[in-house]
């Protein structure tokens, strides 16, 4: 039963992607629907990172000793200023590691 569910979900995801990405299919979205769908990526990413950055053990963690907030602020600033994904990822992860292991380890 589990394998059937996995194959069904795989087929569903593949077909939903294929319908929008295959250029030979006559399916076209209206400009207003395309604009609406352009917000789905940032919304999903925010739903993933916000709980990681702002919560700790089921409670809100907005202290200055939260390394996640400092690394996220740095990542946002770097992404905005440099527009370089690799630089943003490497530098913000290094700063997070430094903060987590050295500065706020006590």
UniProtKB/TrEMBL annotation:
Superkingdom of the organism of origin: Bacteria
Keyword presence, Transmembrane helix: yes
The name this protein goes by in its record: Branched-chain amino acid ABC transporter
TM regions (residue ranges): 37-54, 61-79, 85-104
Keyword field: Membrane, Transmembrane, Transmembrane helix
